[in-house]
From TrEMBL:
Plays a role in pre-mRNA splicing as a core component of the spliceosomal U1, U2, U4 and U5 small nuclear ribonucleoproteins (snRNPs), the building blocks of the spliceosome. Component of both the pre-catalytic spliceosome B complex and activated spliceosome C complexes. As a component of the minor spliceosome, involved in the splicing of U12-type introns in pre-mRNAs. This is Small nuclear ribonucleoprotein Sm D2. Residues 1-29 are annotated as: Disordered. Residues 39-77 form the Sm domain. Coiled coil: none annotated. GO terms for biological process: mRNA processing; RNA splicing. Residues 1-20 have a biased composition (Basic and acidic residues). InterPro entries: LSM_dom_sf (IPR010920), Sm_D2 (IPR027248), Sm_dom_euk/arc (IPR001163). One of its GO terms (cellular component) is small nuclear ribonucleoprotein complex. The gene is SNRPD2. Belongs to the snRNP core protein family. Keywords: Cytoplasm, mRNA processing, mRNA splicing, Nucleus, Ribonucleoprotein. It comes from the Eukaryota.
Length: 86
């Protein structure tokens, strides 16, 4: 698997294939779900579920149909594992 092979030992073709794999299935795949991105990592997203924890420890969430997210405020963006195959 290319994911286990050090990048320094890869051919240019292998590097390109690994980058495509990471973009299609890795953390960067969330960018394919966004409507647009900029070099500042600003994102326009649809069907977003925002989740946070308040004190005392209470988990809260909010559904947002359309959202503009400033890149400097991003902590983590994850794909929903329940719909990841779509």
């Amino acid at each position: 698997s290319l994911l286990n092979k050090p990048k320094s030992e890869m051919t240019p073709e292998e590097l390109q294939k690994r980058e495509e794999e990471e973009f299609n299935t890795g953390p960067l795949s969330v960018l394919t779900q966004s409507k647009t991105t900029l070099k500042h990592c600003n994102m326009v997203m649809e069907n977003v579920k925002e989740m946070w924890t308040e004190v005392p420890k209470i988990n809260k969430d909010c559904y947002i149909s359309k959202m503009f997210l400033r890149g400097d405020s991003v902590i983590v963006v994850l794909r929903n594992p329940l719909i990841a195959g779509k």
